Amino acid sequence: MNNLKQLKFWNFGGMYYFYFMIWALIFAFLPFWLNNVAELSTSVAGLVFSAMAITALILEPIYGIIQDKLGLKKYLFGFVVLCLLFIGPFVQYAFIPLLETNAIFGAIIGGAYLSLCLNGGVGVVEAYIERSSRASNYEYGHVRLFGSLAGGTAAFIGGIMFVRNPYSIFWACTVSAVLLGVLLWTLRVKNTADEPNASAEKEAEEPVTKENILQVFKNRSFWGFAIMMIGIATMFDVFDQQFPNYFASFFTDESQGELVFSRITSVQIFMEAGFMVIAPWFINKIGAKNGLILAGVVLFIRILGSAFLTEVWLLAFWKLLAAVEMPLMLVSIMKYITGVFDVRLSATVYMLGFNFSKQVGITVFSYVMGLLYSEIGFQNGYIALSVFVLTFVIAGALIMRSESYYTKKKNLSAA
């Protein structure tokens, strides 16, 4: 039985590894590809990311409700894997012709397709594995660290691959999708009352209703959480979208800059995996709400510092702050959702409160920041972005309540 449980842990870890291998390869090297291979301006490149976000806005509410209805069934996850399988062929044979026909049209179509796999699909992947690992009595942060390891691996090998052949990045995504599909097919998680976790019992016995879902929107903490996600998750992605190009601009040879950036990203993500091991313990000590606030403060410092640092080694060191920020954010999000809301609705809350809100922000701020970078430059643009972060984090913190508030409320009701 213990051997079976260990095998299941590695299965969860493997799914995170291969999915986030794809995620890291795309988001680390897509900016370079759009700039150097597709030769798009920063504003049109920003439109690709906005299209990814808009598509996710449409998908997230639908995905969230479907996944909560499915519980531990794998059909929706399987659809995401199917989309991932065709990333290589799409980029190799369709994306450039679409961009050559009409840059704006191609950017929208390309962004929409990638969103099926990434911006929209990640909610399905995260929600399913979090629920499955919770039902199997695993700590989310310990399973999630495999995603960080994948990111480090992708950054390390991706730089070499991209310099040799920019298209090889996307074919590596297709190969990873094949392995992800095999792991998903072999995974077995029981959704019965004999699960060791009490929340799994509740999920099995009580179906999700429309009234349950509506209760989420009546909770002020949901709206505060959503605002906080715009300040942290949105701005994290918006900042990282074109930072690789900013970093590479400090090198006389841009390809050298791209390679150095991939090495730094690899170090950052392996450090992130280390922090992911201790993050659950740390968040349990300070509380999930405080963990989110702390993640927002780290992001604010990271963006503002990048506006004033003009030495490559300082920028590289500053980027490593993301190794602390990401574990704080990811673990706090899941602990806040399961600590405040009905666990049967974890996918809905995750996809609407986190992913949907994040994509709303990305839809707006990807394009806005693309224009700002063109008009006032990266450094002044980063100052503006840091102000946006601080504003949303403060607003969200004032509205959302801590999970301890709801624990006390439940205890009083039980008494």
From TrEMBL:
Where in or outside the cell it occurs: the entry states: Cell inner membrane
Q: How does it sit in the membrane?
A: Multi-pass membrane protein
Sorted keywords for this record are: Cell inner membrane, Cell membrane, Membrane, Transmembrane, Transmembrane helix, Transport
* Superkingdom field: Bacteria
- InterPro entries of this UniProt entry? LacY/RafB_perm_fam, MFS_dom, MFS_trans_sf
Q: Which Pfam families match?
A: LacY_symp
Q: Which organism is it from?
A: Gracilibacillus oryzae
Instruction: Output this protein's name.
Output: MFS transporter
Which PROSITE patterns does the entry link to? MFS (PS50850)
Record-annotated membrane-spanning stretches:
12-34, 40-63, 75-96, 102-129, 141-163, 169-187, 222-239, 259-283, 290-309, 315-337, 349-369, 381-400
